[in-house]
Amino acid sequence: MTQDLKNKLLDTIVDNLDIPKPYYLKAVDRHNSLGEWLCRPESKLTAFRPKVHSQGSFRYGTVVRPLFADAEYDLDNVTTLQIEKTSLSQKHIKELYGAEISSYAKAHSMTAPVEEKNRCWRLRYSDEVAFHLDALPCVPEDAAVINTIIKYGVPKEWAQVGVIKSASQLCSFLMHVAPVIFPTMVGSQDPQSYHLP
Question: Against a cut of 0.85, is the pTM above it?
């Protein structure tokens, strides 16, 4: 097999695995629409200055088509609420957030009911593109915890990560933290030299 043929074959495989551009744009629109809703002046979350971010495969550009025709694309986002961890219970935050997610679904005439999951709320979109969006509320890490992590020599930008959003981010975080906290276990090698599966 020639190199040109191999390249064409790989391009075809990638094209068939990758999310089609119109679907990607629809996912971006859905993420932005929910973000605008959660940040609108009338939102019950406005007082907490919400910041909405995508997470997972859409954030990192690693989305692949579902394997089966009846499967859905999975869109994930996190809404960081600017409050102290101890000011509201996790249950209260989730209920407040869920009320906003439900009002979004109602205002946008979504036919599928909002589903409560362990840590998030799921919106199912029922149009030509099968998507569900898992929306997760979170709060920033306490300053004392961040400062303790920094004292161990972890770079500030890593210490401020309050939510590990993906396996690759967790691996990256651990590559920076483990050599500092567990130097005898990791050894003296540069953590960047490790190969991650």
Answer: no
